[in-house]
Amino acid sequence: MRRTLSTDSIRSARRRFFEAGLPPRGLVSDTIAQSWNRCRALGLASDARLDAGPLEQAAVRALRERYEELCRLCRPEMEALYTDAQATGSVVMLTAPDGLILDAMGSADFLDKAARVSLRPGVTWSEDHTGTNAIGTALHDKRAVEVRGAEHYFGAHRVLSCSASPILDGRGRIVGLLDLSGEASVHHVHALGMVRFAVDQIERRLLERELAGREVIRLHADAALLGTHREGVLVFEDHHLVAANRYALDMLGVDWDEVGRCRYSSLFESAQPRGRGVQELRGPGGIAFQAQRDVIPARLPRTARRSAAPSTPTKRIAPLFDDAMRDALQRHARLLDADIPVLLQGETGSGKEVAARELHRRSRRADAPFVAINCAALPENLIESELFGYRPGAFTGARREGATGLLRDADGGVLFLDEIGDMPAALQTRLLRVLQEREITPLGGGRATPVDFAVIAASHRDVAADVESGRFRADLYYRIAQTTLCLPPLREQADLADRITQLWRALGGDDQNMPLAPQTLQHLAALSWPGNMRQLIGALRTLLALGTPGQTITPEDLPANLQPARETGRAMPTRLADGDVPAMEQLQREAMRAALDACHGNVSAAARRLGISRSTLYRKLGADATRTSAGS
Ligand SMILES: Nc1ncnc2c1ncn2[C@@H]1O[C@H](COP(=O)(O)OP(=O)(O)OP(=O)(O)O)[C@@H](O)[C@H]1O
């Protein structure tokens, strides 16, 4: 458990360590102190100016292609964290095993701030490169780590508060890392827990790939926690341990090095279990575990294979559009073919990027590039060089060979300007000129090059209102918004129940014979889904992962945050007005109450439903009771 340390003690620790060259002696956690020592031994200067150089979107795209499988595997969890990240002004990031940031999503404001200290795709945050930081230090220590404010080695990173956990495969090899980062001034108390939970889900899916043709033992001290994400999983082949999850190794006190080497008999005192059903196993020193054994056939019929696995592999779904949207897309694709720019307007998660890609697919430019630029995520000082390219030696830190720029990368295809409403004013002027003149002059001079691309812009902001208030240039608005396609929020869609049914089918709910009960469907369709399609798909994926193949999903099976209200008749807040964001503690209390209520006061069952241990639920209930009585 991490100690809570005050800003004062971190300040004193920094003075001792960086100015006096003394050990920080109990003023920061051992994790941080050890990391500072490693960084100093590497000769890193904590006051160095950090400049990761211009963002190379083309290189980032190439990397995402290289790590496509990892990106796909982690996407559902990133999307599930996204809504929270937006609400707490933070961002969720995925990195490659070496700490190279592959993907980032979340609060547009914070993406921008983070990018200013190079916390953005395309930059490596390994410890030897970027000093003590959650990504690099978690990769070094091979466990979840939180690094807040001035605990970062480099002074420039003190504005950040980051929580990260490496993603391990069944043999303990690091395959990637998930990170949730926000402002140091806002302490997101649940960040580390949320990252850990997300990584648990990803590792679980990774491990499932190792099961076919092998013997699996699931174990926990408490039989009630078998089948939850907290269970230990051991995979054996010919009595040898060939894969495991970290929970199992922790329970048995075994290191990852043992996986692939040790035999069943060196792990347990009891004989290897036979048959099905829960049985007791004695581990090292006679510790008792409740265990369940499964032998997974090497080749199963498709439906059987799904039911043998405890959770569903991620399924990438094709975009789903209703008839009206299909018609609208077809019409706008024709406009795009006539080089009329299209503006997509819609709340976050409503599918603007999906619609843009669909327009590209339906357009005459379908075989040419689709270049997406997130105008809110590009740091202002780099945006010009990124978009327009630069000549060799155009500025300090420029690559010797220069760069072509994203606008030229889009030549012949479609340029997608996402979050156009957040484009800095100076750049609006420069972009307008390109759109008028259809040619690009790289930074540092040189000949102008003609370009030919169709433009799709998107924003969750009301860009027309921004024009009225003078925040956005009117002339640029009229150029990019010659036609506007609005993506309605889910709560305004009359046929939301049909949409949910379609999505459920597309995600594999029917294949697994896990129908949604009519009341469940009705309840889900009545929620307001502020995160729109992103939130809905994330929630349905969670339901699929938690459900049991062959069983109907009833309203009681819904996770606490989607439960219908009971006892008090109060609904969980489903429709959040601007500024009406409930505190995390309030949501937690609501969730705990709803879970206890749904389980008729059975704390073990409620904890299972919430995905936390019984002791954690007791502790939280205790803290809650203390707070309530102290406040009354
Ligand atoms: N019509 C659709 N069919 C299936 N999935 C969809 C559809 N629309 C959106 N999604 C899914 O919802 C998620 C969010 O979509 P998308 O990124 O296009 O939204 P957005 O409006 O661009 O969001 P933001 O403004 O936050 O960037 C993605 O996972 C996407 O695959």
From TrEMBL:
A UniProt-annotated Pfam family: GAF
Superkingdom in the source lineage = Bacteria
Q: Which GO terms describe its biological process?
A: regulation of DNA-templated transcription
Question: Is Mitochondrion set as a keyword in this record?
Answer: no
What are the UniProt keywords, alphabetically? ATP-binding, DNA-binding, Nucleotide-binding, Transcription, Transcription regulation
Domain Sigma-54 factor interaction stretches? 324-545
> Single GO molecular-function term?
sequence-specific DNA binding
InterPro entries, from UniProt? Answer: AAA+_ATPase, AAA_lid_NorR, GAF, GAF-like_dom_sf, Homeodomain-like_sf, HTH_Fis, P-loop_NTPase, Sigma_54_int
UniProt name for this protein: Sigma-54-dependent Fis family transcriptional regulator
